[in-house]
Amino acid sequence: MVVRIAQVAIAVVGIGTWEILVRADVMDAFFFPRPSDIAEQIGDWVSDGDIFDHLLITLTEALLALVIGSVLGLVVGFVLARWQLLAEIFDPYIKMLNSLPRVVLAPIFLLWFGLGIWSKVVFGVTLVFFIVFFNTYQGVREVSAVLVNNARILGAKEGQMLRHVFLPSALTWIFSSLHVSVGFAIVGAVVGEYLGASEGMGYLISEAEGVFDTTGVFAGMVVLAAVVLVIDLVVHRVERFLLRWKPDGAI
Asked: Using CA atoms, how far apart are residues 45 and 185, in angstroms rounded to an integer?
């Protein structure tokens, strides 16, 4: 309760200070629109109903990128963590691919997959994959050797080891990556839409920016931030449910 009160208090003080500084002309309203104007713009979008179509497109792209990127990251992370030889062979290639600037790849994906949904999904996958992969790889490698040896002594096969030892032990690492990946999946979808699309939140923000509508730009960012918070809350609830066997302080 104390944490929630503190979080709300910080938000109220920050937004209130922003509003006061703009009204007092200390901050230029053109560059920093008043929070009240931003809220009014969001209200207009909601009343018109247009924002829901754009938001649905962006969320669909982000969800697909999150699911595909997470599954690929989990599978590749588990495989390379369990087979050291493969990890050593593919290590330079993974580092090379991870070092590529994602923004440079976005226009290439637009050329390959067009202006539709899949160019944004693929771009988002490139952001999500490496986050989940590295956390999964490290999480599996960090599993206690004593626990692994005891399970093998009891006759556990590789499939049983994966289900009952490695996956539960690595869940904390995996969910840690998912909390970060949610934001990156949204970023991937929005950046892809910003560079080339006819719908979506990125397109909406780009249209506002094109006519120097800073209120619309900030309103779009606020909507996206709120959506990320809601999705992260869902991920946190799922995490607590799956890790309910751990002590409260360990989650």
From this structure: 23
